[in-house]
Task: inverse folding
């Protein structure tokens, strides 16, 4: 290599380094490499371990061990000093060695902390190789182990340390705990699979290939790793797709899931206020050109209405939608389709038939929803579930805990001894909030009230078990719709060995669908979105008529009036079961009040039929290793 070529390489690297330096200053960022000794103290480190010589990603080298020479480099280790300096001369000598027969052979020496590397020896070697776009560099690594805390970032790093012996790769570092087992599943491996050398090389090559479109789309500005983004991509595509796609097609596929990748760094936006459901007049349609005159909507379910109360409730909601908006909505149903390829095919058929909006009414269909959303960004897709971190698929559910609060107040008012039973369904998002809201309602009218909790997902005869214990007032499963009253639903009293229903919360999916469709028809789909591309969860309650409570004919008049007062108070906002808690905190509640005698069951305690929903929507779903048939969340 000629001296002129070496000098040209330094000049190009210097230009890039100074540009990066100026941009950092403009954005208010530190313009030099970070210094590990200035970042951590002894109290932050639990210990250290020597990993020996391994290949590390150059992109994860962010600083130096000590402060010496840091002003010679930009934050990304490109040079800043003039070409006539001693530093530049040594840099160019290394450049000659890199491109000559000798090459840069000696590994650098660095410290690793939270998956980032800080160079102790070999700064200029890093700089030269970075200027040529080298993806990795050999390094002797000393890992600094952070002190354990409950911080999610620390938990994710500790999981990385546990997985590292299986992969020997820093490319598998994630920012969220539970991600590595999902990666193993996405690659077709068992959770404890130890990677071979060929598997390591194949994954490293794929990660490098994926990183290019990730950075082109702005991934470097997101507080996530390339592995985080690639895992989102692998929930829709396969690793074989990654290896085989041409660069332009790979970029297109990453763009298709980019909203979901960005959503990783944002909390899920929980929307509690439904759009006002009002009739639209002819003049509204004339002066709002973005309005749709008619909408074709498809409903997809893995259950049949004649076999599932849940599916029947949603189908009644579909019929209600057609009745209210008969001149503006046409619906089509695909019921009884299995999650996976069959559901994907049903969604494709619906779109082929002209569907502009899809409602998938059960959580197991989320995988099919995501794949369809990536292929058809022009189609609006919603899944009936909660806390799904995907901006490309919106989710919807109802705040049934509000009606549970009223039911609890009724139970407290009617209880003679303060002992009340509660049969919970599954340990999923929203259920602990319903239990606690019921308990708070009971204590509102009866300060001595104590709730005995049992779970139908653990024992099939939970209701009878409470009755055998002498509990005579029990909150059982809610009625799915107000026309489906059969005992023992809702709050029941046991008299003469028989169950008598007193009151029950219920879901009104017809109002949910009508509100959503009216908003879409009036051009309000974007108004229902969240800012900054966040994932959106519509979580509507009594004020939106998404839920309500049905009162039994035998309920005492005074208790009936009390229920009406509470209902009106919750609707107008003057009464709140959890007055100081944000919606996100209520939705993700995972603890129970002291007056509730019982606990949230562990996954291993659940009946086999209850485990799939816990994997999808369970309050501890991130701690459950995925199985081959599960979608990767």
Result:
């Amino acid at each position: 290599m000629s001296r002129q070529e070496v000098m040209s390489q330094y000049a190009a690297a210097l230009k890039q380094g100074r540009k990066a330096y100026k941009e950092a200053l403009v954005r208010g960022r530190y313009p030099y490499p970070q210094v590990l000794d200035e970042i951590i103290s002894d109290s932050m480190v639990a210990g250290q371990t020597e990993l020996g010589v391994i290949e590390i990603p150059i992109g994860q080298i962010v600083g130096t061990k000590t402060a010496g020479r840091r002003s010679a480099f930009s934050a990304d280790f490109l040079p800043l000093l003039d070409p006539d300096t001693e530093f530049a001369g040594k840099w160019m000598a290394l450049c000659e060695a890199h491109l000559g027969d000798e090459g840069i052979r000696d590994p650098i020496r660095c410290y690793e902390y939270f998956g980032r590397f800080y160079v102790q020896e070999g700064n200029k070697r890093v700089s030269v190789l970075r200027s040529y776009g080298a993806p990795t560099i050999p390094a002797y690594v000393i890992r600094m182990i952070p002190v354990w805390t409950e911080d999610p970032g620390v938990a994710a790093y500790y999981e990385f340390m546990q997985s590292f012996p299986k992969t020997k790769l820093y490319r598998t570092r994630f920012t969220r705990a539970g991600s590595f087992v999902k990666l193993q599943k996405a690659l077709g491996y068992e959770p404890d699979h130890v990677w071979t050398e060929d598997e390591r090389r194949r994954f490293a090559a794929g990660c490098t290939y994926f990183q290019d479109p990730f950075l082109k789309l702005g991934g470097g500005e997101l507080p996530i790793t390339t592995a985080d983004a690639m895992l989102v991509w692998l929930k829709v595509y396969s690793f074989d797709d990654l290896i085989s796609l041409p660069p332009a097609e790979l970029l297109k596929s990453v763009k298709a899931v980019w909203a979901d990748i960005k959503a990783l760094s944002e909390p899920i936006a929980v929307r509690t206020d439904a759009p006002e459901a009002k009739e639209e007049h002819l003049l509204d349609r004339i002066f709002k050109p973005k309005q749709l005159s008619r909408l074709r909507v498809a409903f997809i379910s893995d259950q049949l209405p004649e076999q599932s109360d849940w599916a029947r409730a949603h189908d009644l909601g579909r019929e209600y939608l057609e009745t209210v908006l008969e001149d503006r909505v046409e619906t089509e149903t695909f019921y009884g389709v299995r999650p996976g390829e069959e559901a994907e095919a049903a969604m494709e058929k619906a779109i082929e038939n002209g569907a502009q909006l899809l409602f998938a009414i059960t959580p197991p269909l989320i995988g099919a929803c995501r794949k369809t959303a990536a292929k058809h960004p022009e189609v609006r897709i919603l899944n009936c579930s909660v806390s799904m971190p995907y901006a490309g698929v919106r989710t919807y559910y109802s705040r049934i805990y509000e009606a549970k609060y009223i039911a609890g107040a009724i139970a407290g008012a009617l209880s003679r001894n303060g002992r009340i039973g509660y049969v919970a369904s599954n340990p999923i998002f929203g259920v602990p909030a319903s239990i606690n809201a019921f308990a708070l309602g009971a204590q509102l009218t009866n300060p001595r009230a104590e709730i005995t909790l049992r779970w139908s997902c653990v024992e099939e005869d939970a209701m009878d078990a409470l009755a055998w214990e002498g509990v005579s007032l029990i909150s059982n499963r809610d009625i799915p719709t107000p026309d489906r009253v059969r005992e023992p639903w809702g709050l029941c009293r046991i008299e003469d060995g028989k169950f008598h229903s007193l009151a029950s919360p219920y879901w009104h999916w017809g109002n949910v669908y009508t509100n959503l469709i009216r908003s879409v028809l009036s051009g309000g789909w974007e108004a229902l979105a969240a800012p900054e591309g966040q994932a959106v969860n519509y979580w509507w309650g009594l004020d939106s008529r998404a839920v309500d409570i049905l009162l039994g004919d035998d309920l005492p008049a005074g208790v009936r009036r009390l229920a009406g007062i509470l209902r009106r108070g919750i609707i107008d906002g003057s009464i709140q079961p959890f007055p100081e808690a944000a919606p996100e905190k209520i939705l993700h509640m995972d603890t129970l009040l002291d007056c509730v005698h019982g606990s949230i069951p562990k996954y291993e305690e659940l009946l086999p039929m209850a485990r799939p929903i816990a994997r999808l929507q369970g309050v501890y779903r991130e701690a459950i290793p995925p199985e081959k048939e599960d979608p990767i969340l």
User: Anything to note?
Assistant: The mean pLDDT is 90. The CA atoms of residues 320 and 510 lie 5 Å apart. The radius of gyration is 29 Å. Residues 3-26 form the longest helix (24 residues).
